């Protein structure tokens, strides 16, 4: 089976305090987008990568990914994103070669997800398990609150996972999920759930946490730079 990766790089970077889209902010020596593409192209089995970038930064994105593509030998295409996240994912899907029957959808904001996480997710996608998400156990107690802020429920954290990307799908299932439910979710696995299909959670990775605030940058830089 052939694996294609769609990297969504359309975050604004507002909460990061950046004057440019988040994917272009340098962290640990390179822009987040560069780290994300390096990891995707280093993963075994990946044959193509599509980066979905803001229309205002297509040339910048192309300049960043070209040397990674050249050195890895993996084609990396940059395409413009859409109005919503789901539109951007579909834009990337349209550019992936048809032979990519497994699709990994990844957020550039999770730039330090290692190649082995891409491989673990892709390997878990089968006919019987067409949707895979990586996740970590939740260590905090979680409260469900109502509109007024009062607690309605305290779920057992043993059953909770904080999900990450890349998320992996059979291509036909991902297309059906988007065709049926559009862009009405914060991740693609939710759209698959709404099809009535089960989504399997595999082990995530601490380095795949999302970069949203300056504190996230400091924490993940320390984690990544401390790794051998």
Short characterization:
The protein is of the alpha/beta class.
Structure in words:
With 228 residues, the chain is α/β, with parallel strands linked by helices. It has one domain (3-226): Spore Coat Polysaccharide Biosynthesis Protein SpsA, Chain A (Alpha-Beta Complex). 34% of the residues lie in helices and 23% in strands. It has helices at 32-42, 58-72, 85-95, 115-124, 171-181, 188-193, 214-226, and strands at residues 3-8, 26-27, 30-31, 46-53, 76-80, 102-107, 131-137, 144-145, 151-153, 161-163, 167-170, 200-203. Strands 1, 4, 5, 6, 7, 10, 11 and 12 form an 8-stranded mixed beta sheet that branches. A two-stranded antiparallel sheet has the order 2-3. Strands 8-9 form a two-stranded antiparallel sheet. A hairpin with a 5-residue loop joins strand 8 and strand 9.
């Amino acid at each position: 089976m052939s694996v294609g990766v769609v990297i969504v790089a359309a975050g604004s970077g507002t909460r990061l305090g950046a004057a440019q889209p988040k994917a272009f902010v340098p962290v640990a020596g390179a822009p987040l987008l560069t780290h994300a593409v390096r990891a995707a192209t280093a993963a075994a089995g990946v044959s193509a990568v599509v980066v979905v970038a803001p229309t205002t930064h297509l040339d910048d994105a192309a300049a960043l990914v070209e040397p990674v593509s050249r050195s890895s030998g993996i084609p990396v295409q940059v395409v413009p994103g859409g109005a919503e996240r789901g539109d951007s994912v579909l834009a990337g899907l349209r550019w992936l070669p048809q032979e990519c029957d497994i699709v990994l959808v990844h957020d550039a904001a999770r730039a330090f997800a290692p190649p082995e996480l891409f491989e673990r997710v892709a390997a878990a996608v089968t006919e019987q398990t067409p949707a895979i998400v990586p996740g970590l156990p939740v260590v905090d107690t979680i409260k469900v609150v109502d509109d007024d802020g009062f607690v309605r429920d305290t779920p057992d954290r043993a059953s909770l996972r904080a999900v990450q990307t890349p998320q992996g799908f059979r291509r036909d299932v991902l297309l059906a999920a988007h065709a049926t439910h559009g862009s009405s979710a914060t991740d693609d696995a939710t759209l698959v759930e709404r099809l009535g299909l089960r989504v399997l959670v595999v082990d995530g990775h601490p380095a795949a946490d999302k970069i949203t605030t300056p504190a996230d940058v400091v924490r993940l830089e320390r984690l990544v730079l401390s790794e051998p």
